[in-house]
Amino acid sequence: MFENTDDRTKPGGINLHTMPKRHNLLCVTGDMGSWADRSPLHDAACYGRVLALKTLLDQGACANLSTIDSVTPLHEACLGGHAVCAKMLITAGAQVNARNIDGSTPLCDACSRGSVSCINLLLSHGAEVNPSLITASPLHEAVLRGHQDCVDILIENGARIEHTDCHHGTPLHVACIRGQVDCAKSLLLAGANPNATKNHETPLHYASQNNYAAVIQVLVEYGANITALNQNGKRALHLTAEDSEARQLLLYYEGHVESLKQLCRLTIRQSVGASRLNYLSSLKLPDLMLNFLCHR
């Protein structure tokens, strides 16, 4: 396929004329047929080879060239966290909301990587923060790998914190499955429902099943129901390991009534509503009260 395979590994050394002629046909017809495998353009984007990518694009390579799995060079650049390459591809006409065979967009890949620069770039060029997916959303991907900074950016840009995927449930469910306590805090602070269910399993059930004491503590602080039953009729306590810190923590919560102060905070936050919690800081409240309501 290549006249000189060594040229592929050298920045700027890839020549469009060594590529299959069908690549040029795709650029003319726009046909994204499933014949294509990885191209030199994909490789350059994947490994962050800026000079090689520029050479290919300058020679007319199609920025939306797709592999058999519908992976575009922009997917590759974002999965690798190569913001410069991603910007070059977008400038060359790459579709920011292209989907691969799994339905994932470049934003999903950038969130999986934890690349703040790629996320900001994509959002500034119209990437959908809430693409219609039945699989993991960009927010799910960021939470799954514990990228709290990415989670915060997505929430600030309107990510739906109650979106459920076909596997785990809401992003909060994912945080509790993986023990991502900081991501769980960000989601709960933004108004995520601590008692959301996926097949009758709440985030607390998942955290307890995995004995994540720190996550359990955060969930209860934000109003998780410790007596909720899963599909097998078990409370979170029943899912913890004997003599574990998680079990001791839940035993303590079950034996103690929540303070009036905590009940007031939960009631006020619930009355305000998740969609309006971000407006609390604009109210003329004493700092002490504001910090209390915002869990600061």
The CATH class designation of the domain at 1-129 is: Mainly Alpha
By CATH, the architecture of the domain at 1-129 is named Alpha Horseshoe
Largest sheet: none
Q: Between the first and last Cα atoms, what is the distance in angstroms? A: 60 Å
Low-confidence stretches: 1-36
Helix/strand/pairing category: mainly alpha
Could you spell the SSE succession in H and E letters? Answer: HHHHHHHHHHHHHHHH
Verbal overview:
The chain starts with 20 loop residues before the first helix and ends with a helix. Helix 4 (73-80) packs parallel to helix 6 and helix 10 packs antiparallel against helix 11 (181-189). It has helices at residues 21-29, 40-46, 50-58, 73-80, 83-91, 106-113, 116-124, 138-144, 148-156, 171-178, 181-189, 203-209, 213-221, 245-255, 260-272, 287-293. The protein has 16 helices and no strands. Residues 1-36 have low confidence and may be disordered. The relative contact order is 0.06. By secondary structure, it is mainly α. The chain has a domain at 1-129: Alpha Horseshoe (Serine Threonine Protein Phosphatase 5, Tetratricopeptide repeat), CATH 1.25.40.20. Helices cover 47% and strands 0% of the residues.
List keywords for this structure.
296 residues, elongated
Topology:
Layout: H1 21-29, H2 40-46, H3 50-58, H4 73-80, H5 83-91, H6 106-113, H7 116-124, H8 138-144, H9 148-156, H10 171-178, H11 181-189, H12 203-209, H13 213-221, H14 245-255, H15 260-272, H16 287-293
Helix pairs in contact: 2-3, 2-4, 3-5, 4-5, 4-6, 6-7, 6-8, 8-9, 8-10, 9-11, 10-11, 10-12, 11-13, 12-13, 13-14
